[in-house]
Every structure is written in C-alpha cells, then in structure tokens.
From TrEMBL:
Keywords, in A-Z order: Cytoplasm, DNA-binding, Transcription, Transcription regulation
Family: Belongs to the TACO1 family. YeeN subfamily.
Domain TACO1/YebC-like N-terminal: from-to ranges: 3-73
Annotated protein name in UniProt: Probable transcriptional regulatory protein ACFQ2I_06645
All copies of domain TACO1/YebC-like second and third, residue ranges: 79-236
Keyword Oxidoreductase: no
Length: 240
C-alpha cells in the first residue's frame, strides 16, 4: 500500500497549499455533521471524525467554532451528499464527493470540469466498485512493532500496518476510525500526520508521459476548485 500512501501525502500537500479553500470546505462539513446530531463531538461520532480530520489540516479554531455556532443557532441550510464518478485521461478513474445545497448547480459544474479537462462523467457505480472506503492514520515517533501492539491491545480491526518515510501508517475499515483513534490516544498519541476517511483504489495506474499527467492534475484541480466539492479520489499513481 506504499504507493497509495504516496497519493495520500500528495493530496494532503495539495490541500495544505490551498488553506483558504480547504478551511471553507471543512466549515461546511463541520456544519453538516453537527446538524445531523448534537453539535458536541463527544456524543456525535461523525462530528468527532470531521474535527479530527480538520485538526490534521490545522483548521483554525475560529472557523470550527463558527461552524458549530451556526449549527447550534439559526442555521437552516440543507446540504445533500452527492457522489459523482468519471474518467480522466488514459482511462483513469475519479470519484468526486460533494456537499451541496443546490444539486442543479453542482452536477453541471462537475460535468463541465470533466469535459474541459480530458475527462468524462460516468454513471453511478461505474468507478466506485474499483475503490475501497478506508480509514487511514499516519503517526511519527513510534515503531511499526509499537503501533501493532497498540492495535492488538485495543482489539482494533485493521487491514494493514506499514512503515514508510519514518511514518507508521494504519489502514482500517471506515467504521474502525474511532477505535483506531482511541487506540492511539490511549497510548498518549494525540497528533496525527494524517487522519482520513478516504477511498483507496484497488489498483493504481501510471500515466504515459508528463503531458498526460499535467492534464490529469489540471482535471483534479478543476474539480477541487468547485465550491461544492469536498473530496476528489482517483487511481493515478502520482508518487513516482
């Protein structure tokens, strides 16, 4: 899974370089999670997961508090979760997750981003079957054996644990996010280099040359720039 880890790092680096955009997206995601249940992470597990993810991107407390206050107060915006699937250059596969208060705005915008950048929209299910929903944690300062022991002691159900570039990476089922997080925290680990719920491709592909890769990266950027798009997942290996 090392190459997949490279893609997660690339994705996080891209988000870190676009702080205002990612902060705004997290603001919406926090608001939506808080509105689904209590605006308290101790009683709202979905909110707790979002807040942990936001922490790894250094989302300012003011933005988090604003979203929570909006959920507690008079905020009455209704957002719908939408997933779009499509193909990029060279048959690459792309999943786009959105939170939107206007589906009639979002779907055409996503389709246009595909069409203008060498891609095409697919039907529901045309791509997602080639991806696995996965919880991913990355920690530093601990050995592979130490992390394995933590997971065993906590009886956390994990898929794989690897070490790469001084980071120990834990892959688990999405419903194990909280259990893995608590396993780390019970061992004194409060900071994560990555704490994500992601879609990992079952197989990755490489693009044939720099021009095609540049076109693909332009497609991903165009999709991520859309106001309603929260996450973009793909099966292209960008780590080489």
């Amino acid at each position: 899974m090392g190459r997949k880890w490279n893609n997660i790092k690339e994705k996080k680096a891209s988000k870190d370089a676009n702080t205002s955009r990612i902060y705004a997206k997290f603001g919406v995601e926090i608001y939506v999670a808080a509105k689904k249940g209590e605006p308290d992470p101790e009683s709202n597990r979905a909110l707790k997961v979002v807040l942990e993810r936001a922490k790894t991107y250094n989302v300012p407390k003011a933005i988090i508090d604003r979203a929570l206050d909006k959920a507690k107060g008079s905020g009455d915006e209704t957002y719908v979760e939408q997933r779009y699937e499509g193909f990029g250059p060279n048959g690459s596969m792309v999943i786009v997750d959105a939170l939107t208060n206007n589906v009639n705005r979002t779907a055409p915008a996503v389709r246009a981003a595909f069409n203008k950048n060498g891609g095409s929209m697919g039907v529901t299910g045309s791509v997602s079957y080639m991806f696995d929903a996965t919880a991913v944690f990355g920690v530093t300062g601990k050995s592979l054996d130490e992390v394995m022991e933590m997971m065993l002691e906590a009886d956390a159900d994990v898929r794989d644990i690897i070490e790469e570039d001084d980071v120990v990476i834990v892959y688990a089922e999405p419903d194990q996010f909280h259990n893995v997080q608590e396993a780390f925290k019970s061992s004194g680990i409060e900071e994560f280099s990555v704490a994500e719920l992601t879609m990992l491709p079952q197989n990755e592909v490489s693009l044939p040359d720099e021009d095609v890769q540049a076109q693909f990266e332009k497609l991903v950027d165009a999709l991520e720039d859309l106001e309603d798009v929260q996450q973009v997942f793909h099966n292209v290996d960008l780590g080489e």
